[in-house]
Amino acid sequence: MPPREGRHAVWPDRIRAEVIAAVQTAGIQHPWAHQARAAEHALDGESVVVATGTASGKSLAYLVPVLSTLLDGSEAPNGRGATALYLAPTKALAADQCRSVKELSHPLGNSVRPAVYDGDTPFEEREWVRQYGNYVLTNPDMLHRGILPSHPRWSSFLKALKYVVIDECHTYRGVFGSHVAQVLRRLRRLCARYGASPVFLLASATAAEPAVAARRLTGLPVVEVADDASPRGELVFALWEPPLTEMQGEKGAPVRRTATAETADLLTDLAVQGIRSVAFVRSRRGAELISVIAQERLAEVDRSLARRVAAYRGGYLPEERRALEQALHSGELLGLSATTALELGIDVSGLDAVLIAGYPGTRASLWQQAGRAGRSGQGALAVLVARDDPLDTYLVHHPEALFDRPVESTVLDPDNPYVLAPHLCAAAAEIPLTDEDLELFGPETEGLLPQLEAAKLLRRRTKAWHWTRRERAADLTDIRGEGGRPVQVVEAGTGRLLGTVDAGAAHGTVHEGAVHLHQGRTYLVRSLDLEDSVALVEEAAPPYSTVARDTTAISVLETDVEIPWGDGRLCYGSVEVTNQVVSFLRRRLITGEVLGETKLDLPPRTLRTRAVWWTVTEDQLDEARINPEILGGALHAAEHASIGLLPLFATCDRWDIGGVSIPLHPDTLLPTVFVYDGHPGGAGFAERAFHTARSWLTATRQAIASCECDAGCPSCIQSPKCGNGNDPLHKRGAVRLLTVLLRGAPEAESGESGGGDPGEGSASASDGATVAARSVTEPVSAGASPRGPVADAPSAVEAPSAQQAPPAP
């Protein structure tokens, strides 16, 4: 990728001279053009999103107008005529930003008083922050649970609120993003009550339609600044496919060398050559493994080199993070193996090389990580090391899918009733809800309020709805989790509480026999008590990892949209999914070789969510030469591969979604493949799949057809989470079936891919609206439950029981 020259501009003349002087003192003489343009919009009172590359100076773009306004406000009689609120997705990022603001604003004296307000803030400091802080840095969780429910104590701060900064806003996607969108609507409502109308300043990684995503998140019109004017050195980007080994996997499938082992070798080679590198890995275990392997291999070359590679993981203190960052910048540390959380907690730009162990799930994340490579004007290297799965394999063989396509749209659905209901309760507890609030919270609100009233959560008095319970309404939902009592992970020998796991995640992650990682230590789960929500663990060092397997049945509750695809049909609507974790696999570390499978006895759980599904007819099966003996395997293979490829079209992980395939489904009476959201009420992923179905299923067909294996392997149609042991699967049948199905797909219209019109009165997927109104308490369809499906559910983290979802208190 060729180098790019930087383009300078001048700060708007309304920026205070003292602020410009402070920026120049920090070594920045002139802003880049996009920074000056964003500041201009902010001063004009227009909400703006800055969506430019890594290390392009987004922070300065919003900090300069904020500091200038705070300086103006410091001259008010009470010394706090203007305030600003900063939201970060992690506490680490908020703490880092606070340090940066303090350094930048030091020449301004006490006029700017930045302060972090989160769960770690000592109680004695909290009152000072409320009374005197004028730049408060927090996270959406604290805003939801701490600040908004206590708004009378924050009244002077909210009354003077001029700016709300939302950093790393591309991370607010799916269910978490939908919750944050409703938290921001509650914030806007309270600000209006106190007479304030803050401007929203958002910073995002490069994203498709950043203004649309920002509008969906905030509920306000947002101007977009996406023309990156910062300089960039040449970047060489390599796609690396690990070689096949002589080992065999399930059903004799060929197995590739793992991305973890391959990345460790590359990190070793780079360190030996003195090249400063970071390896991004998705799991903490992976980060530590890469670090350990690289240290061992470096010690064989030169013992002193082994100390110059380290792992970065969660649980580090701010000072330790700073020391690590400093060691990397100074060159004392040559290699760092880190989880992707590093993106949001530490400044490691300006490296020589970046290794990415496995596609990080979205093109936005890929470019965010690759952007860490490259110091001012110098060339750099980025390497994507493919994992042995359909999506990674597809990308390595179809580089145009990475380099010739824009990054994804951020998918979120604030109108999901399972998300909206608890926030309506929380809003009513803050200030009683009135008819004027209906528009703010979205079109589903009017239909939900009577349901919440019937559930005795809200009560209507005269013209307003009031919260009726003694408990805190904000505790109805965990904006990052899915509700339900968290399972406590306890060390059996000492009784020490190690941490907690979301209720929905427990079945798949802390079942009996599971390998559990905590703070770099490995534990084996001895027992899981679901009644008391306790998992007992013992420290151990097993030579394997564990992966849970589950089975799934699905029934159609309501079909919202149905589009003919030749004789077949593409549908979108509401479904009920019954999921049960039935066993777990033990896989050897490094190689991924399957060592064995152990049965489990756990209860089934039910989830009501949204799904996309397609059907085929007898005539289409005949055309594709699919006889009854291979029908189940062909459908199952197509389902596996389509789940693997969907993250290319929606900002989801394959563990956010699940699938079911069945040769004769009782609700459709046809061979059917379902792909569903693993969250109560849906997360927007299935809707995105519906709207991009033609492109999505075309890529799925290509991925299967281009794989070098004979009968199927993890690179194309085998799934690590298959509850049926990847049986039956029929690779060639899946290719023929998808070929016939796609022949009937309508031509793409207006930038979408055969997803069709979602129906009258509803918005397109790009507007983030739901396709049709739906209720929290949908009745189960009278049809018989599915028999004999082949299914792949999302991990339990993403598929909690809908029975626990609001409005149950």
UniProtKB/TrEMBL annotation:
Residues 266-418 form the Helicase C-terminal domain. It comes from the Bacteria. InterPro entries: DEAD/DEAH_box_helicase_dom (IPR011545), Helicase_ATP-bd (IPR014001), Helicase_C-like (IPR001650), Helicase_put_actinobac (IPR022307), HRQ1_WHD (IPR055227), MZB (IPR018973), P-loop_NTPase (IPR027417). The keyword Nucleotide-binding applies. Residues 760-769, 793-809 have a biased composition (Low complexity). PROSITE patterns: HELICASE_ATP_BIND_1, HELICASE_CTER. Residues 747-809 are annotated as: Disordered. Residues 39-225 form the Helicase ATP-binding domain. One of its GO terms (molecular function) is helicase activity. Keywords: ATP-binding, Helicase, Hydrolase, Nucleotide-binding. PANTHER family: ATP-DEPENDENT HELICASE HRQ1 (PTHR47957:SF3). This is DEAD/DEAH box helicase.
